[in-house]
Amino acid sequence: MRKVDAEMNRIMPALDSAGIGSLGTITLHRLHRLAPAPIYALVEAMGRDPSQVSRVIRRLEGRGLVSKMPLTEDKRVNVLSLTPAGKKHVEVVETALRGVIGEVFAPLVEAERTELLSLLKKLSGE
User: Fold this and answer.
1) Interval 33-71: pLDDT, tens
2) Roughly what angle, to the nearest 10 degrees, separates helices 21-34 and 2-15?
3) Which of 21, 78, 110, 111 to pair with 38, CA 20 to 30 A apart?
C-alpha cells in the first residue's frame, strides 16, 4: 500500500489540473460514491471534522467541481453533487490509480489479487 501511496503522491501534481490537492481529490472521490448526498453524509463517510469538510466543499464549489442544492424536504440541508467537471476529475484520477495498482500488484497472479482485494475490503469495512 505504501508503494501505491508513494506513486500516487508522485503523479498527483500532474493529475491535479484543478489545483485542489489530495484532500480535495479524496473528497470528490467519496462524493462520487455517495452523490447526491447531504454534507453530513460526506462528513461521516470521510471521518473528518465537519468544518474541514465544509471548507473543502466551498473550495470545490468555487472551482466548479461540486454543486449544492437545498433538499426539497428541508431547505436548511444542502445536497451535494459532482458537476461534469468534478466527474471528469474523478475519472482521470481513478484511471491513474488503476494503472498504479496494476503496476504494483503485477507480480501477483489473478487468484492472489482477488484474495488481496477481498481482504482489503474486509479490513476497510466494505
Assistant:
1) 998 999 899 999 999 999 999 999 999 999 999 999 988
2) 100
3) 21
